[in-house]
Structures are given as structure tokens and as C-alpha cells.
Amino acid sequence: MLRPYRSTDAAAVLALYEPFVRDSGVTFETDVPSLEDFSKRLAHIAGRFPFWVWEEDGTVLGYAYGTTHRERIAYQWAVETSVYVGRPGNGIGKQLYQKVLSELRNRGFVWAYGVITLPNEPSLALHEACGFEPFARYDSAGQKLGTWYDVQWVRCSLNPAAPGMAEPQYDVSVE
């Protein structure tokens, strides 16, 4: 079931995220955050951007959100997106992403950017299926677990850019 993130989801989201931090190059985060720090991070994101989870039988199986792309105000129409699923290939990631991208579009954002550590064919396929296109690749962008990884940047056009556009809508309420 697709539903908005709630603050009570933080531990379940961390449990899903932890193996990506500990065992892979999917994220360049190298230390598993404490639940307290992670809860604060998620509350900050969910307070400003769309953040959705997929839950079945009380278990969070995936999540996706938008977040700040860059801090400078001129970048406010661009967001960076993330999606994590425990078992790719079951359609959960696509449904999560479609919901997040739809909300971002409705809030007036222009671009959604994704950053994919390579190799990661499931993530590349998901992003392509959701309307993202590759536009930049950083070779040997980061080293984790003794391996150098390339990073593929992808982007999804949400709305046409126009002079004098209204600022995108950020703040939302979260339980």
C-alpha cells in the first residue's frame, strides 16, 4: 500500500536503508546513522518535500522522496530524488517514484535529478521507466568498500522553465 511517510516509519526506513550503507556502493554514506540522527534527517525532508512509503502487512518495503538539490536559492526549482526498495523488480519502486514525481510536478518544480552509483541496472531501468534521461557521468566519483564507483546523473523534466515562475511549494504537514 502506497502512503505518505509518517515519523513513526523512521526505524523501518532505517532498517531498509542500512544494508545499502553497510554492504554496497548504492549510497556513498559509509556509516549507518543512528536512529535519532536518521529520524531528524527524515523529518526535515518530509516537512518540505513529497515522501512516500510502500507498506505491506505492517512492513515498509520501499520509500521514495524528493529533497534539496543545492542550497542556493537559484536552484529552488530543482530537486534530487531517491528511491529504495528491498527487492527490486516488483513494481514498488515505479509506483513510489510516480507518486513523488507527480507531487513534485504539482508543486511547481522544474527538474528532478537522480544520482545512480554504477553498476546498477535495476535503478537505471527504473529511472528510464519513470521518464528520467541520462545527462552526465562522473567516472571514479567515489570509493567505498575498496571499490571505485562511477556515478550516472539522470534528470526528469517536471514542468517547463519560464521567466518569473512562482516559487515551488515546499512545506507540507507530516504526522
- Beta content comes to 25-35%
Q: Which secondary-structure class do the elements indicate?
A: alpha+beta
Report the order of strands and helices.
EHHEEEHEHEE
Distance between the termini: 18 Å
How confident is the prediction overall: mean pLDDT? 94
Shape: globular
Tally of contiguous helical segments: 4
Helix-residue proportion: 25-40%
Strand order of the largest sheet: 1-2-3-4-5-7-6
Question: What is the number of strand segments?
Answer: 7
Unreliable runs, pLDDT <50, ≥5 residues?
A: none
Largest sheet: 7 strands, mixed
Rg (CA only):
16 Å
In brief:
Helix content is 29%, strand content 33%. It has helices spanning 10-23, 35-46, 92-106, 121-129; strands spanning 2-4, 51-56, 59-68, 78-85, 111-118, 133-144, 147-157. The chain is globular and about 45 Å long.
